[in-house]
Structures are given as C-alpha cells and as structure tokens.
Design goal:
79 residues; alpha/beta; 4-stranded mixed sheet; 2 helices; 4 strands
C-alpha cells in the first residue's frame, strides 16, 4: 500500500515535519487562481499515484473559508 503526504504551499513546513517523522514521501499542491475566480489545483511533482493509495492531506480551511475549502475539495477530487 502506497502512502504519502500532500500539502498546500502555505503549510509546507508542517507537512515536511510530518512526512519526515512518518518517513513518507511529500508532494506539494500548486494552486492557480484566475481572474474569473476559477481555481486550478495540481501536484507540483510529476508523480503517478497508484489506485488504492492512502494520502495524508495537510490543508487548512481558514479565512477566506470558501476559497480554501474549494482548494481542499479540488485536491481531494484530484486524488
């Protein structure tokens, strides 16, 4: 079973510490915001995630809640 940590750029220090402690690979989320309020979420590294993998997602839902929650939902959908 493949397990990894994935994190938004804002929380990368916490995710790095968690990944090191658990000895798991760490991948960063890249978020792009367009002028028309569209959001694109992708993994910065070129990595294939095997079906059935477990992911520990490090992401907050702080202010502005609607934006950060949408980022989190798009990241989860991508996995």
């Amino acid at each position: 079973m493949h397990t990894f940590v994935i994190s938004h750029e804002k929380h990368f220090a916490l995710a790095t510490s968690l990944a090191e402690h658990l000895q798991l690979p760490l991948y960063a989320l890249h978020v792009v915001r367009y002028a028309d309020s569209e959001i694109q979420v992708s993994i910065q590294d070129d990595v294939e995630i095997p079906y059935g993998s477990h992911a520990l997602v490090v992401h907050s839902t702080s202010h502005p809640v609607q934006d950060t929650l949408m980022e989190l939902l798009l990241a989860l959908q991508m996995l």
